[in-house]
Every structure is written in structure tokens, then in C-alpha cells.
Design a protein that fits this description.
The chain is an alpha+beta fold and 193 residues long. It contains 5 helices and 9 strands; from the N terminus they run H-E-H-E-E-E-E-E-E-E-H-H-E-H. Helix content is 37%, strand content 18%. The strands form 3 sheets. Strands 2-8-5-6 form a 4-stranded antiparallel β-sheet. Strands 4-3-7 form a 3-stranded mixed β-sheet, with no helix packed on it. Strand 3 and strand 4 form a beta hairpin.
């Protein structure tokens, strides 16, 4: 039996409690920046990532409005996309930043991983498709979140963190392989036929 199954049997013989995201997480500060206030690259003057409505950072800024260990849900554009930010960051006006009310009861990263499993459902169910896609904060706050005991959350986060690291390493290795393959198979000059 998998250790996670053992933990579930031990701690949750009757299942787990579910509560709305807005009950178990707090909304964090967000504030709109103008594009000219943001640097495209991280440097000493602009060290903090800016999270907005994109799958990538919007850029970098000289201040932060939130500590790390938070997740953001894009409110516009890529509405419904969920990202985790470990470091201090600036939350822009086009996202909904959150953190668990208490990491002693519910790990912020556990909520993030759970929401990643619900991302497509959020996009299909809650996102309004007009000229710019959008998701309503009231709908986001109502998303049911499972509340397994902390040891189970910790094990799930550990497993998914390991998997994420391995996936990132594999992606880097593939890029490295493609680079060297292309270098080795580029002979220069004209092909003789």
C-alpha cells in the first residue's frame, strides 16, 4: 500500500472536510503598475517579480507588496491560470493573490496544487469569454477546497514538489540535448548532392 493511502486510512477514515477557498485563504494586496514602471529583466534595481494575468511574470519591480508563499489566480487574459510564488513579489491588478489563513492547518502550497487540478474546470465553468476573458472573484472564493490533516498535505506537497523538480530538470536536459544535437549536425556550407 502506498504511504499516502496509509495516511488517508489512518487520519481520514470518514473522508475529509471541504470548505470554500474564501473561508480558508486570505486575499492579499494587489495594485496596478504601468508598463513603464516595470523592467523586462530582473536586476539590482528591479529584483521582485510582478505577477499579473499572464502565465509568465509581467516583469520586475523595485518593491514588493506581498511576501512569498502565495498563489495567484489570473483574473483577466489567461483567466483561471494558477501560479505559485515562493519569493516576495508584486501582485498586479489583474490577478487574485491568496495565502492560507494558517499554514499550521492548511498549507498554501497544498491549496495551489489542488487548484492546479481544478484549473481547466475553473476556465470552463467560471470564465466569461468576451473581448477579454475574465473570472469573477466571488466564483473563485466559492471554490471548495479539501482539508485533509496536515501530515497528508505535507506528503502530497513533498511528492508534487519532487515531481515538479524532476520535470523541470527533464525540460532543461531536453533543451540541452537539442542544442548539442543541432550543433553536432550542422556541417556548414552547402550540401553536396
Amino acid at each position: 500500500m502506498h504511504p499516502l493511502q496509509q495516511l488517508l486510512r489512518m487520519y481520514c477514515p470518514n473522508g475529509v472536510e471541504w470548505r470554500a477557498l474564501g473561508e480558508v485563504c486570505v486575499s492579499l494586496k494587489k495594485e496596478t503598475l504601468k508598463q513603464h514602471e516595470v523592467s523586462a529583466e530582473r536586476n539590482e534595481r528591479y529584483p521582485y517579480p510582478v505577477v499579473n494575468s499572464s502565465r509568465e511574470f509581467y516583469g520586475y519591480y523595485g518593491h514588493y507588496n506581498n511576501e512569498g508563499n502565495a498563489f495567484c489566480i489570473a483574473a483577466r487574459g489567461n483567466a483561471g491560470f494558477v501560479s505559485f510564488i515562493a519569493e516576495p513579489f508584486w501582485a498586479g491588478g489583474l490577478c487574485y493573490p491568496y495565502r492560507s489563513r494558517s499554514d499550521n492547518e492548511l498549507l498554501t502550497k497544498f491549496v495551489f496544487y489542488y487548484l492546479k487540478t481544478q484549473e481547466q474546470h475553473m476556465m470552463d465553468t467560471f470564465v466569461a469569454h468576451g473581448s477579454i476573458t475574465a473570472i469573477n472573484k466571488t466564483d473563485v472564493d466559492g471554490i471548495p477546497i479539501p482539508l485533509p490533516p496536515l501530515p497528508i498535505q505535507e506528503e502530497i506537497v513533498r511528492i508534487l514538489d519532487t515531481f515538479t523538480e524532476l520535470t523541470q530538470e527533464l525540460t532543461q536536459r531536453r533543451a540541452q540535448f537539442a542544442y548539442y544535437r543541432d550543433k553536432l549536425l550542422t556541417f556548414g556550407g552547402n550540401a553536396h548532392g
